[in-house]
Each structure stands twice: as structure tokens, then as C-alpha cells.
Amino acid sequence: MVVITLLNIVVVLMAYLSRDEKHRYLLLWAFLLLILVLGIRYGYGNDFFSYKYFFDHGSYEKESEDPDPGWGLLNKLFKPFGFSSMVFFLTVVEHLMLYDIIRRYIHPNYYWLALFIYLFNPYFMLIGLSMMRQFLVQILGFYAMEYAYKRKLLIFVLIVLICISIHKVGFLLVPLYLFSYVSKVSTKNMLLLAFLPTIIAIVLMYVKMDLIIERLIELFGESGMKYGDSYLNSTVLSEEYRVNPKMVLRYVLYFVLLIRNYNFLPNSNASRLFAIEVTLGVLFIPFASISPMAIRVSWIYSMVVIIAMPFLIEHERSLKIRNAVMLVFSILLLRDYYNHFFSDIWGAQYLKFYTIFSEYAIYDIRLF
Q1: CA distance 250 to 330
Q2: Is the Cβ–Cβ distance between 365 and 356 less than 8 Å?
Q3: pTM, two decimal places
Q4: Structural contact between residues 24 and 88, judged by C-beta atoms closer than 8 angstroms
Q5: For the chain, where are the E strands, in sequence order?
Q6: Nearest-angstrom CA–CA distance, 102 and 12
Q7: 162-199 pLDDT tens trace
């Protein structure tokens, strides 16, 4: 916890200093520092050793899990060089892509905010270090949205197919192409689009979902609904991800900014689409009490808040609203970040940061 937290603070500080044109290079340096430290991690996160097992044996420990062809091919390509080389490669690719997106979409004054959200929201960087396949899909999703906006269908389809070959959750990128047609929606329709997911979430806080569970099991199968239960206690997960007032408040704050500033966002790039995409993620969150997969699905869409929140803050005209939203949003984020390290689900796998040079890591590598 200490190592990761200090790393995050230094990186956010470097991004803050990069506001000055003379120090703009510090943003790249910040990402290179992230790559250097995170790329040599070992045994960090709940899924790390499951991926290592697949790398070493060509299959998962659970027979019901079929390897995705793209992920299987990537493992084979790095087989001669070892699992740690693939982890480092993915860290480099993912963070350079994220650097490219932030540099092109975010005003330099808010580089630090984009990185603050990425690093201190525990369900982005921290969980991304563990769920390697889905995290790669989430990063590629930024580019899928860009090409959807440009109406370049063939490139969009190619990116989506690559994502699907890495993780089946990549299918959820398909609807993003339809979003390329909603960048000019009216303020009235935007109000409905923004608050409808929140209203649904609030209603589901007080609704018994037995019938919904039965229908979802019929649709996806019992094994699909219980994806991840082998390492996650579903009862604890239900309590941790149950829709609560703090969760709703965080998204209400976002939607307030969205409604107030949507018409001021540039229509010359995909920024409006990124802003709208976050609303899709909210729809899945209430179902986390049913299946762990629901919360993971929501991250496919909600991770774009890394980009959306900074440029909504940038276009907010009221200094008081801007500062109030940033303060409350940051407090809620830091609260989740701290609780993550002491969670019954994640804590044991995230409190200590080991590298490939750690004594126990070297010993473990020799076993294989």
C-alpha cells in the first residue's frame, strides 16, 4: 500500500507540474515512472497467479473457462521470454496508449486530475493490474470510441474483434458505434439520458431482485452468473458493491457537470461521446449484488470518466461548483481507495507490493 500510494502521489505531482509548457515533458516522465514500477510487479492482485498458471500450463485451473484465442496467442508469443516479460509488455502498451489519449484530449491544466482519477479509483489502475485481459480491452475501448466517432467502421470492427479475442467482454464495445450518432442530442434528451441510469440505480436499491436473478441465470447460465466466485466471496462482494447513497452521489455529481457543460464540449472530436459513455456503466452497477461480473462489466464503460471528468471540469463556468464537485468527488474517491486495501475481497492481495526482484518472487519463478 505504501509503495503504490507514494508512487501515485509522485506521478500526480509530476502531472500537475507539467501544466507549465516548460515542464510539459513531465507528463511523459510520469507515465514512464508508472511503467518502470508497475511493469516489474509480481504476485500483485487476485488474478495474477491465475494468469501465470495459464501462461505456464496453457489452460486455466477451472475447466469451465475456455481460453480466448487472442489471449492464448499472446501467451504463446511470450512463452520463450517468460511471464514477467509479457506483464512488462502489457504495462508499456497500456500506459503509452493512455498517455496518448490524455495528452490529446485533456487540457494541460487538468493532466493531474486525469491521473488522479486513474490512480486513486481502485477499480481502474489497481484492479487493472490484476485483471489483465479486461484492462487491455478497456484501454483499447478508448480507440474504439474514437473510430466510432469518425465513422470508420472497418477499423472500429477490427479493434472490437481484437478485444473479443482477448476477453468476451469485448462484445460490450459494439454498442459504442451507435453512440457516434448521438453527439448532437438536445439538452432535454441529454437530461433524460444522464439521469435515467441514476433513477434506475436508486430504485433498485429498494427492489428485491429475485425475479431478475432468475431471468439472468436463464439468459447467461448459472456458471456465467457466478464468474469469479472461485476467488471472490459473493456474499462479501454483494455487501461491498451494493448500491448506496455515496455511490449514487458520485454519479449525480458527474451528471450535474454533464448537463451543465455538455453543449460547451467540442464537437470536433469524440469528447462528447466519452462524456455520454460513462452513463452506460451506471446501468450495470446495481446488479453487482447478483453477480461479480456486473461490476466488472460496468468498468468497460465507466473508465472513460478518466477523460470525461477533466474536460467537464474544464468547461464548468462556475468556480464554486467546479471546486465543490472536485472536493466531494476526490473525498469519495480517496475513501474507496483506502478501503480497497482493507477489503475482505482485495486487501490480502494488494497490501504488499512485490517485484520480480523480491526474494519470494525469485524463488517462485525458479519452481517453474
Answers
A1: 10
A2: yes
A3: 0.84
A4: no
A5: 41-42, 354-355
A6: 13
A7: 999 998 888 888 888 877 776 555 555 656 665 665 56
Residue 266 region by backbone torsions, left for phi larger than 0, else alpha for psi between -120 and 50, else beta: beta
Using pLDDT thresholds of 50, 70 and 90, give the confidence band for residue 45.
Answer: confident
Q: Indicate the burial class of 262 (C-beta count within 10 angstroms; 0-12, 13-18, 19 or more).
A: buried
What is the average per-residue pLDDT within 72-76? 92
How far apart are the C-alpha atoms of 255 and 329, rounded to whole Å? 12
The three three-digit cell numbers of residue 255, written as one number: 451528471
pLDDT at residue 332 tops 70: yes
pLDDT for 245 equals 66
For 304, the grid coordinates are 472513460
Cell 434528451 appears where?
189
- Over range 81-99, report the average pLDDT: 95
Q: H or E stretch including 25?
A: helix 25-38
Can you tell me which residue has the cell 489452460?
Answer: 59
The whole-angstrom separation of Cα 221 and Cα 283 is 21
- Give backbone dihedrals phi and psi of 41, rounded to 5 degrees, phi first: -65, 160
Name the residue with cell 452521489.
Answer: 249
Which residue has 518502470 as its cell numbers?
Answer: 36
C-alpha cell read off for 249: 452521489
